[in-house]
Each structure stands twice: as structure tokens, then as C-alpha cells.
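can u pls check wat happens w/ 3-methyl-2-oxobutanoic acid
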Amino acid sequence: MPSVTEIRSKAGSEPVTMLTAYDAPTARLVEEAGMDIILVGDSMGNAALGYESTLPVTVDEVASHTGAVARAAEEALVVADMPFLSFGVETAESVHNCGRMLKEAGADAVKLESGPHTVDLTERLVQLGIPVMAHLGLTPQRVNELGGYTRQGTTEEDAAEILDLARAHEDAGAFSLVLEHVPANLAAHITDELDIPTIGIGAGPDCDGQVLVFHDAVGLSENPPPFATAFGNAREELQHALDGYVGAVESGTFPAEEHSHVEEDLDELY
Ligand code: KIV
């Protein structure tokens, strides 16, 4: 498994690969593809749990799904994404919630959607031995305050604020930084400025690594964001398999002889 130190040392040298997973079989597939990091994203809210946004996702849900992923993942670094309001309100409660991900669920690190309110918390968590991945730019937990899943860092002032926060989180001890939906030239500049790896999503090609949501990457999402690409058509493949199953049951071709067993002794009874 790459340690957070190894991930940190990839900055500027080797690309960091990260994808989300929310369950054990998916984690195994993601790992077989050679992913460096599996993020148990709070995107599970939309992608897997049927919520309209990530806001309703609970600490228990993230802990449960992180446990499933961590039990399956032998090679990749497992990062638990802390849900809305589970951190940043009270320090003790934040530490308790983040600590659960390592102690109970088996995560290697946590990710915090970051802002001015997470600089001191990041330092505290790192002091306590909880590695932190920071996340700036579009932070979907603030969707109501932002007015939508909009591009961030598009004005000089906003870009400067993101850069300042990126530096502050690096200084606080974060081992990496996700940059979401920011201009490619801003992400390139931040990547140059920091020693820790930047991991982009909708942030152009010059970050140290890239992350996508599993369902977007494999072609399962109905409404993927504009910056995602599907590298397959899993929806079509799954639909094909499911149509085949329904058709076979309805036509009586499944189960066939090879799927059934007959006990000779029972012939006398029935
Ligand atoms: O929740 C998530 O999956 C994320 C990634 C998109 C970075 O935060």
C-alpha cells in the first residue's frame, strides 16, 4: 500500500491516480486497475444512496462504506471523505468523527472539504496522527451557499484566496490537495507553488494527479458533470446482462439442466 509519505513524494514526478469506490467488489476492481488511492467519497450520496446531494450523508454511512472498501483493498491507500457538518463545528467532535474512520473503519486518511475553518483542524488532526487530504475549489457540501455546482476561482480575488488556502493547508500538514472545478491555469500555478501533490477534478491536465467518481469513469452515471469522461459503457453492459436474465427466466431457458441437481432417491417419493 502506498503510504501518505509515498503519495506526497509523487508531487512533480509520478502521476497520482485516484477513483472513488463505496463497496468491496468495486474496491477490488479499482485496485486491480492499479489505483494509488481509493476515495470513499461523500459522492456516495448521489452515486449510491439515492440522495439529491451529498448533504444528507452521515458519519455512520461513510464509516460503513469505508469499512467495506478497506476490507477489500490491500494495495491502495483508502481515504474516507468526511460528510457535511461532521467536522469544523467543534474540534473535539471533528477529531472524534475523523478518528472513527481510522479506528473503526480501517481508512488510512481522511479528506476534508476545506476552507478557512479547516486550517487549524488539519494541523490538529495531523498532530494526532490522522493524515488529511485537503479539498479546495468547488466544495459540493457548500452547494446551497455557492448557488450551484459552479466553477470556482474564476476571478483574481477568488483565485488568490484558493492559492492562500492551499498554502495554509500545506503548512498545516495536509499530505495532498484535491482541486475541483477551477481554471486549468490556476490549478497549474497552485501545483507549481506547492510541494504536496495536487489531485485535479475539472482542474485541467497540470495537476499531479486526477480523481473521478467511479460511476462517471465507467459510464454508469445518468448525469455526469461536464468535466468527467466515461472510459467505458458499464450502464449498457449491465443493462444487457439484466435484459438477458429477465428474458431467460421469462422464456424458461434459465435455469438449464447444468444449473439444477436431481436426487435419484427422491424419485420414489415424487
Ligand atoms: O466525494 C467525492 O467523490 C469527492 C471527489 C469528487 C473529489 O469529493
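The pocket of 3-methyl-2-oxobutanoic acid is lined by residues 20, 39, 41-43, 81, 178, 180, 201, 211, 213 (CB under 6 Å).
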